[in-house]
Amino acid sequence: MDRYHAMQVFVRVAETGGFAEAARQMNMSPPAVTRAIASLEDRIGTRLFVRTTRAVRLTEPGRIYLDDCKRILGEIEHAEAIAGGAFRAPSGTLTVSAPVLFGQMYILPIVTEFLDKYPGVTGRFLFLDRVTHMIDEGIDVAVRIGQLPDSSYSASLVGHVRRVICGAPTYFATHGSPVTPDDLHHHRLISATSAWSSLDWRFGGPEPTTIHVKPALFCNTNEAAIDAAASGWGLTRLLSYQIGPQLLAGTLQTALSDYEDEVLPIHVVHPEGRRTSAKVRAFVDAVVTRLRNNRLFNLSDPGAALRTT
Predict the structure, then answer these.
(1) Is the residue at 306 inside a domain?
(2) Burial class, 105, CB count within 10 angstroms (exposed 0-12 / middle 13-18 / buried 19+)
(3) Per residue in 252-262, pLDDT tens?
């Protein structure tokens, strides 16, 4: 096995945390993966992994070697892309990440449309409710919701979302609408136990406040919390984009609009510099244009988009 392929195998084992999974993803046999790693370790003269019956983890030299391998393999891919014309026309694999529900609702349709337009591109979509490490995880373009830390990435602001209290019209008709955040203590609440959730609901307005709530129902997905609220069972608190279709259809309405916390920016992020290929440039242009034209993420007045009560 040549050294280039052995390095690819090493990176895949490190990323997957196992020989068997790396073998499956690379269409290799587990013994072939084991031989590739053993060959690298013999050539280098040190162990790259600590193997136990339960897990495989990198040694300290292995972690250093992993960074170098990713850099070297990236340089090779860059050179091949230039030689093959990938920097002139979109081609190759495009890896995009976004929060789960946002990605499913708003980004996946843009990706599939993009793939139809550029058949030379293969799409890989990662739905993740966590901040991704773009270089380490091989991500070309990411959608981020929230304030961005300083970085060397290129970021395009495409809109804003809000944290909103929402319920069905039938619920408000029966139980009334809360006038202040304190009124939530007298309502039946639904909490989604997702990455964004907390039982301390923060509100803005003239006097910012935080209310510790005691939900009557906990749901492990946002979709379940949305369905429960839309059925008229109670009130929930979500990001405005998550209930966009329900707001448009009138099955959900927002409340306490005057007490909403600060809006959260949406950015499209990608590594910049000479590695920016045609596929990345073309996709960034497409997704930025589509999101900026979506009134759910209104940039001119982010607090007003689809406010209903």
Answers:
(1) no
(2) middle
(3) 999 999 998 88
